[in-house]
Amino acid sequence: MKGLLTYIPGSTLLHRLDPRTKLFISLLLCVGVFASSNLIYLAAVLLLDLLIGRAGNVFRQTFSIFCKLLRVMLFLFVLQLLFIQRGDTVVPLLFGLRITNVGIKTALLVVMRLLAATLPLCILLMVTKLDDLANSLVVRYHIPYKYAFALTTAIRFVPEFSKEMQEVIEAQTTRGVELDTRNIFRKMALIIPLCVPLLISSVRKIDGTAMAAELRGFNRRSWKNMTSSFRFRARDIITLVLAAGVAVVGIIL
After folding, report:
1. What is the pLDDT of residues 199-223, one digit of tens each?
2. Within a 10 A sphere around the Cβ of 247, how many other Cβ atoms?
3. Which of 22, 72, 90, 128 is most buried, by the most CB atoms less than 10 A from its CB?
4. Distance, CA of 253 to chain centre
5. pLDDT of res. 2
6. DSSP secondary structure string, the chain?
7. CA distances from 92 to 80, 85, 96, 101 (A)
8. Which of 122, 73, 80 is nearest to 102 (CA)?
9. Can you give the pTM of this predicted structure?
């Protein structure tokens, strides 16, 4: 997905918030959506996620991610409908299966919770520099730098791997491999062997990154020799209070 996990520069209020504030907002919204079983509340949080994306000037990317996640969620929705057989029958199916009222409600809860919890995390990564996020955790909470580095590096490599996989697929397509087939099983059989060259290139990247980190004194970095300064301002406190209020409403509902 283009834009997913990739920082998009900007000067909006969301960009100017402390990295920790944006992280806590994402976590508070996750707490709220997983604590609530109210579909109206979940729909409101989904709308709030899109509004946050608009406020951060990344609405197009946010909506694109929402649409692509929705395709995956539709698959989960169908699975929930088929596997949950408790409750009153709404639609009878073949082989003794049926769609029940409990199955429909549970499927909606699962899908809406995952969507509402995933979007804030994606927006966080689009409006926050990973280095700032890692440094703020190290400076303010004295988290060992190696753990913060491992987290941000793992996130940073996701779009890189996605780009490389797309290049491999395009190269195979130009050689006549029918990767655009609509048969999902045949497509999986064709794509799985392509993971081998991707794995090899990934190992090379990891080895190169490790060598570069060692040369730059990776093992000597700690919160004591960090020069960056991160402080909560009035806008951060107000935003956190609002996010906490949304989470409390979800817990109550």
Report:
1. 777 777 777 776 776 666 666 665 5
2. 21
3. 22
4. 25
5. 46
6. -TTTT------SHHHHS-HHHHHHHHHHHHHHHHH---HHHHHHHHHHHHHHHHHTT-HHHHHHHHHHHHHHHHHHHHHHHHH---S-EEEE-GGG-EEEHHHHHHHHHHHHHHHHHHHHHHHHHHSS-HHHHHHHHHHHH---HHHHHHHHHHHHHHHHHHHHHHHHHHHHHHTT--TT-S-HHHHHHHHGGGHHHHHHHHHHHHHHHHHHHHHTTGGG--GGG--------HHHHHHHHHHHHHHHHHHH-
7. 15, 11, 8, 12
8. 80
9. 0.73
pLDDT of residue 223: 55
Alpha-carbon distance of 163 to 198, in angstroms, equals 10
Q: Give the closest residue to 123 by CA, choosing from 64, 42, 38.
A: 64
Task: Name 54's Cβ contacts closer than 8 Å, sequence gap at least 6.
Answer: 62
CB-based burial label for 136 (10 Å; 0-12, 13-18, 19+): buried
- Residue 201 has a pLDDT of 73
Give the separation between CA 140 and CA 174, rounded to whole angstroms: 51
* Structure tokens, 121: 């995390």
CA 28, CA 26: separation in Å to the nearest integer? 6
Distance CA 23, CA 19 (A): 6
Q: For 66-83, how does the pLDDT look when each residue is reduced to its tens digit (9 = 90+)?
A: 888 888 888 888 888 888
